[in-house]
Amino acid sequence: MFGSIFSWLNIILKRDLLIAFRKSSTYITPLVFFLIVVTFFPLALGPQESLLSSLAPGVIWIAALLASLLAVETIFSDDFRDGTLDEFFISLEPSFILVFAKVLIHWLITGLPILFASLIAAIVLYLPFESFIPMLLSLILGTSFMSLLGALGAALSLGRSAILSAIIVLPFSIPTLLMGTSVISSSLTNQDFSGFLMIMGAMLAIGIPLLCLLTVEALLLNYE
Amino acid sequence: MGSPPLFYNWSSKIIPWLGLLTLLVLLIGLYWGLFLAPMDYKQGDVYRIIYIHVPSAILGESIFIFMAICGFINVIWRAKISGMLLKAAAPIGMSFTLLVLVTGSVWGKPTWGTWWVWDARLTSTLILFFIYAALIGLHSTIEDKTKADRAVSILSIVGVAIIPVIKKSVDWWQTLHQPSTFTITSSPSMSPDMYIPLLVCLIGFYLFFAYMLTLNLRNVVIERESSKNWVKHVMDQESK
């Protein structure tokens, strides 16, 4: 039984990754967007090193949130438009796995590039080297949660304006933003940041089953 | 309650009574709190805004819990009435949350010396306000209202996670905002002659919510069933 679930997951992952890599804009766009947003802050606030390094956690996290929301409406919209999504639901394979695979793909094409870009951002914003690991850990957990939320927003606003999904998702992303920036800021002042990471991990652990199930519900709304 | 015409007729009968009761309790509570209750020795008369601030805060949060329960029922059992209740409750909850933020600012200016601080409780209440806005915004973009109800139900289940955060924000973080006024487990930190009018106000606010919810639900029911015969019948009767 589990074998068939994994092969189903495997099929969707392979197919979607192939589609994503044939169109380089899907994974380049969030990366470039992230770096451009980061660039704006030194230009707007001035290049003082002390100012930038204290603002770096917030800047990196705001840029990461916005960049991961950028590709949100593409999670389901293409498959919905050409009828692939219909076929997925007709196939009677577990739709939970389908949503989970879509979230994973979204994280691979936005969250993962953002992780690499955040290293560049951290260097140019003078973030101390000791804070790099906490930053990466918080971004791994946080962007995954954003992909889950984004999938729900995309499913709820399927076939409607793209900006709607961002408006829906943004208020719900505030806890992630708070926890993520707290991780980096506490590492800046040499405080213990593991508590914030644990909360982010707990959010992710609850979010994977709950948000995926709710996303399935939201997708099914379009087939009544 | 099950059938819309039955609800409509039944609610027509109870609305005047509910309205009267609400008015009575609110008047008693507010008069007692704003005029009769003793003055606070530190804050003076400014503290009296809590007779509006605290009940609206409790309402803003409990209406969201109410909506999430309705949403849960709507998603699992597809009960249409729970979707309508959710839709009817949302604007009321959002108004109360706005009222909390406004009365809090008005109180904060003379007491803390600022309209707004980025404190955990204030910020989490602001997030609640944004979540209300997201729910109402999502509902208005979906044409099919039954589907809109379900979409909002799904989102309200996610959103309810903010409620324990608001509730616990004063314990988890060092904040400027004082600890909860109401606790079930321990005796109130206020003197009874300040506390009892607050309880009366709270009951009055809940009654007001019940009153507004019934009015709103009637509108939603009429709007959804506008093509049915009984609605035409009712409208003919009322326009006479």
Task: Name the descriptors.
heterodimer; A: 224 residues; mainly alpha; elongated; B: 240 residues; Four Helix Bundle (Hemerythrin (Met), subunit A); 8 helices
Would you give an account of this structure?
The complex is a heterodimer of chains A (224) and B (240). Chain A is an all-alpha fold and 224 residues long. Chain A has one domain. Chain A has nine helices and no strands. The radius of gyration of chain A is 18 Å and the shape is elongated. Chain A starts with a helix and ends with a helix. The mean pLDDT of chain A is 89. Chain B is an all-alpha fold and 240 residues long. Chain B has one domain: Four Helix Bundle (Hemerythrin (Met), subunit A). The model of chain B has no long low-confidence stretch (mean pLDDT 86). The chains are: A mainly alpha (224), B mainly alpha (240).
Question: Which helices and strands appear, and what pairs or packs with what?
Answer:
The complex is a heterodimer of chains A (224) and B (240).
Chain A: H1 2-22, H2 25-45, H3 49-70, H4 74-81, H5 84-90, H6 95-124, H7 132-156, H8 162-188, H9 194-220
Helix pairs in contact in A: 1-6, 2-3, 2-6, 3-6, 3-7, 3-8, 4-7, 6-7, 6-9, 7-8, 7-9, 8-9
Chain B: H1 4-36, H2 50-77, H3 80-111, H4 120-141, H5 145-159, H6 162-172, H7 192-224, H8 229-239
Structural class of chain A: mainly alpha
Number of helices of chain B: 8
Q: Helical proportion of chain A?
A: over 70%
Mind telling me the C-alpha Rg of chain B? 20 Å
Number of strands of chain B: 0
Helical/strand content category of chain B: mainly alpha
Order of helices and strands of chain B: HHHHHHHH
Query: CATH fold name of chain B, please?
Result: Four Helix Bundle (Hemerythrin (Met), subunit A)
Q: Give the biggest sheet of chain A.
A: none
> Which value, in Å, is the CA radius of gyration of chain A?
18 Å
* Biggest sheet features of chain B: none
Low-confidence stretches of chain B: none
Secondary structure tally: strands of chain A: 0
Residue share in β-strands of chain A: under 5%
Relative strand content of chain B = under 5%
The overall number of domains of chain A is: 1
Mean pLDDT of chain A: 89
Specify the helix fraction band of chain B.
over 70%
Please give the CATH architecture of chain B.
Answer: Up-down Bundle
